[in-house]
Amino acid sequence: MKIQSICCIGAGYVGGPTMAVIAKKCPDIKVTVVDLNEARIAAWNDEDVSKIPVYEPGLSEVVAEARGRNLFFSTDVDKAIDEAEMIFISVNTPTKTYGEGKGQAADLKWIELCARQIARVAKGDKIVVEKSTLPVRTASTLKDILKHTGNGMNFQILSNPEFLAEGTAVEDLMAPDRVLIGGDQTEEGLKAIDALVNVYARWVPRERILTTNVWSSELSKLTANAFLAQRVSSINSLSELCEHTEADVNEVSRAIGTDSRIGPKFLKASVGFGGSCFQKDILNLVYISRSYGLNEVADYWEQVIIMNDYQKKRFSKKIIKNLYNTVSGKKIAFLGWAFKKDTNDTRESAAIYVADHLLNEQSNVSVYDPKVTEQQIYTDLDYLGSRTPEENKESLKVVNDPYEVCKGAHAVAVLTEWDEFKTYDWQKIYDNMLKPAHVFDGRNIMDTKALRDIGFKVHAIGTADDN
Ligand code: NAD
Ligand code: UGA
Questions:
Q1: Which residue out of 8, 9, 14 has the highest number of ligand 1 atoms within 8 Å of its CB and is therefore the one to mutate?
Q2: Closest Cα to residue 20, out of 79, 53, 51, 63?
Q3: Ligand nearest to the CA of 267
Q4: Nearest CA to ligand 1 atom 4
Q5: Which atom of ligand 2 is nearest to the CA of 350?
Q6: Sign of dihedral through CA atoms 370, 376, 378, 381?
Q7: DSSP label at 95?
């Protein structure tokens, strides 16, 4: 079966880039991305392609090439569902904030709404593709809803989880390590799998397209994230031991990572992992394990989160301790707010929690990030609810110049690994700061020797503090 029209519900960090790349690589397939959020769709359609709502290197070029040719963004969800042979569900699946499973389980209300809408609208057979990250066995819920609320059409459910990382989304989509497609192992199921394999096979070598049953595919996505996050928590746990023993975590990570069985990636000690997925997916894995009565399995994975929360707290405590145990009334400048470089996404960014902790200690925080808007920074802080929005505006300032943000500060904290931070005139920054001037490098990206030569006291993750 050759697919000619695709619809994707959800125009976010996954739906937008994924569909843009499919449209680029398959000019003969009509790809329509729909969302309930009108402002988001308007931004995807902005004539000025630099204004699209997701910042990713290379993305605006891909959108500029395909948009209006075979890539469309719309709020007319019903029409797009009706026209498509294959429907990707790429909506958000955040951690539940209420009721049973609050704080751990995935909130599947948007997924269920999509299923009900597809069932209501579809007037022909469709292949429904789970692109969102979902708890294992969600496909059976989808199937149930589609069967019982539909118009008697046939639906095949595929699981095709996305492995792109933000900041490298286009690169990851163009040349993925693998594409995973799970489906029913029946004649109809295998046909549906084949239809999706044929889409990816336009640009992904066949041997990189893995096919499995639905449950393996759903579970592999959650656990791939859990394994990646576990590596970060493992190296972060060692970072504290390094600080006490004069071992250097960068050297340790290089020494460990050169063992080909371990590998060098994801061993960078940091202020803690952020992003919309690691924490949510591990919590979900913990919840699922507990719901099967597997308490030891749940405890094992929960420790990855506990370590990460500890690492964020430890970083703010390091700042407080080195500023003579008080930051009250002191200005602390943040370089970076995004959860990693090359993205404007701030979900679960460590910077939010470090700022919150320092503001609780009555510090004055000033923030500069090259891609995050002032409004987003206040939204993130207000969401925590530790202070009123007015109080947040009073004690945290957003500044759009990196030199200005550091002026008069006691300390600079590097919270995101943006490349541009390394290129600044650090002598100029030093000259305009209060003394002793400190740099707290939460990402271990700075040239610590050069900073010390200027006169800074430097505190990195996983090496002994300067006294
Ligand atoms: P997002 O919040 O950026 O985007 C989701 C979009 O879906 C929003 O714009 C929302 O308005 C829309 N939406 C929700 N319900 C809808 C409905 N019923 N009809 C139409 N639109 C609806 O989320 P995201 O970061 O793109 O993540 C989406 C999924 O992909 C999640 O399950 C996530 O775990 C998974 N994932 C994310 C990443 C990532 O890097 N962000 C990577 C791999 C997988
Ligand atoms: C992660 C996975 O890498 C993707 O494969 C997956 O598709 C995605 O989650 C998802 O499901 O959403 P992402 O969260 O976008 O991607 O970014 P990562 O590069 O994984 O970084 C996550 C966090 O870990 C960042 O805060 C990053 O700074 C931190 N990190 C990463 C470290 O602190 N040290 C490292 O060595 C690597």
A1: 14
A2: 63
A3: 2
A4: 12
A5: 26
A6: negative
A7: B
Write out pLDDT tens, residues 164-203. Answer: 999 999 999 999 999 999 999 999 999 999 999 999 999 9
pLDDT in tens, 309-334: 999 999 999 999 999 999 999 999 99
pTM of this prediction? 0.97
Nearest ligand for residue 308 CA: 2
Judge whether residue 308 has pLDDT over 90: yes
Give the distance from CA 151 to its chain's centroid.
Answer: 37
Q: Which atom of ligand 1 is nearest to the CA of 110?
A: 15
Query: How sure is the predictor about 453, in pLDDT bands with cuts at 50, 70 and 90?
Result: very high
Pocket lining: 54 vs ligand 1, CB cutoff 6 Å: no
Q: Atom 11 in ligand 1: which residue has the minimum CA distance?
A: 37
Q: What's the mean pLDDT in 137-159?
A: 94
Is the Cβ atom of 366 under 6 angstroms away from ligand 1?
Answer: no
Give Cα separations from 361 to 332, 355, 434 (angstroms): 12, 10, 19
CA distance 365 to 158: 47
Residues 6+ apart with CB under 8 A from 346: 337, 338, 339, 352, 372, 376, 377, 380
Helix (H) / strand (E) element for 126: namely: strand 126-130
| Dist. CA 273 → ligand 2 center (Å) | 7
Residue nearest to atom 44 of ligand 1 (CA): 162
| Average pLDDT for 388-396 | 98
* 464 CB near ligand 1 (under 6 Å): no
Exposed/middle/buried for residue 243 (C-beta within 10 Å: 0-12, 13-18, 19+): buried
Which residue numbers are catalytic? 277
324/361 Cα distance (integer angstroms): 13
- The amino acid that residue 195 corresponds to is A
Nearest protein Cα to ligand 2, atom 1:
165
DSSP string across 409-442: -SEEEE-S--GGGGGS-HHHHHHTS-SS-EEEET
Please classify residue 317 by burial: count the beta carbons closer than 10 Å to its beta carbon, then call 0-12 exposed, 13-18 middle and 19+ buried. middle
Spatial CB neighbours of 356, under 8 Å, sequence gap ≥ 6: 381, 384, 386
